[in-house]
Amino acid sequence: MDRTPFYENHLKFQAKMVEFAGFEMPIEYVGILDEHMSVVNNVGVFDVSHMGEFWVKGENALAYLQKITSNNVAALSIGQAQYTCMPNEKGGIVDDLLVYRYEDMKYMLVVNAANIAKDWEWCTAHNDLGVLLENASNRMAQLAVQGPKAKELLQQLTDYSLDNIPYYHFAVAPFAGVNEVILSNTGYTGAGGFELYFDTNVAQQVWDKLFAVGAAFNLKPVGLGCRDTLRLEMGFCLYGNDLDDETSAIEAGLGWITKFVDNKPFISRAIWQKQKEEGVSRKLVAFELLEKAVPRHGYNLLNEEGAKVGVVTSGTMSPVMKKGIGMGYVAPKMAKVGTILYVEVRGRSKKAIVVKPPFRK
């Protein structure tokens, strides 16, 4: 398995290591519940160096990204980031990702770790505009410092005012003694914070200084286990669970990152535009359990008569809500907020109700 530059640090903190997307990653240190609440109430740091980073450069970079992604990249200013997805040619999703407009003709794509090879093949196969593509995944490290105290902590390590970086914007500035670090006001936890990108050869320096300053903030390393529970409490999709090659952005409730603007003939545009205009056969919904139970990926969703109407794509026991929460696909008539569903948990039907995300307000 591959390892990130922070592997030895995880061992020092006695992390429970597991295989994830071909990497040996920390799933938890002292426990998912404790780590989850540390991020919600204070600050935690995730090693997300397993994520992929691609550079897209050249005079046709914008036209290329307009073709392969669903959101309107032309709306980005320099220093702004955008959540989007790459549609495949049959109306599914290759991956969901972030696009950073780094310079006038230079962009960075941040893709899911499990999809790096697939995404790279897709990007290169559809490069008919002569743009320069560079896979920088192996030489870039990334830490996500998340939680309400994240900004105050990080400000101790840079002279650049983090107040000048709005949500979904970024800056390149000196940080922790490193000349160029991407400081991105993004994250997938809903708790606030920043994602930091830097060269792998300075990774240990950044880690050491972050934890030296972080001691005063009770900074804790947090694992992928609570990253999943945090994103689910916010109703954020996870590729491989809620999104895949057979799922459209319209079905997944991601119409807001699907822009049918002029001069944007993106892949599968006709399929998704038809779905938006005529409707879909299934929709992704969020639900809360009304009985004591924990929904899991793959569990059946039933109607009041006990007939299967869908399947759970993501589920957990919410550390904040103290109840089972989940997401899954159902027929549109079952997707209205307030609709009663049942989750089949080990042969028993557990009552649930469709709600509007996020679960954690």
Computed CA radius of gyration, to the nearest angstrom: 21 Å
Note the run of SSEs as H and E. Answer: HEEHEEHEEEHEEHEEEHEHHEEEEEE
How much of the sequence lies in strands comes to 25-35%
Q: Name the CATH superfamily classification of the domain at 7-49 and 138-233.
A: Probable tRNA modification gtpase trme, domain 1
Helix/strand class: alpha+beta
The CATH topology of the domain at 7-49 and 138-233 turns out to be Gyrase A, domain 2
Taking pLDDT < 50 over at least 5 consecutive residues as the criterion, the unreliable ranges are none
| Helix percent band | 10-25%
Number of helical stretches of at least 4 residues:
8
CATH class membership of the domain at 7-49 and 138-233 = Alpha Beta
What is the strand tally?
A: 19
CATH architecture of the domain at 7-49 and 138-233: 2-Layer Sandwich
Largest sheet: 6 strands, mixed
Gap between N and C termini: 38 Å
Largest beta sheet: strand ordering: 10-11-12-9-3-13
The dominant shape is globular
Give average pLDDT, whole number. Answer: 98
Give a nutshell description of this structure:
The chain is α+β, with helices and mostly antiparallel strands and about 350 residues long. It has helices at about 5-10, 30-40, 60-70, 115-125, 150-155, 205-215, 225-235, 270-280, and strands at about 15-20, 25-30, 45, 50-55, 80-85, 95-105, 105-110, 130-135, 140-145, 170-175, 180-185, 195-200, 220, 285-290, 300, 310-315, 325-330, 340-345, 350-355. Among the domains are: about 5-50 and about 140-235, Gyrase A, domain 2 (2-Layer Sandwich); about 280-355, Beta Barrel (Elongation Factor Tu (Ef-tu), domain 3), CATH 2.40.30.110.
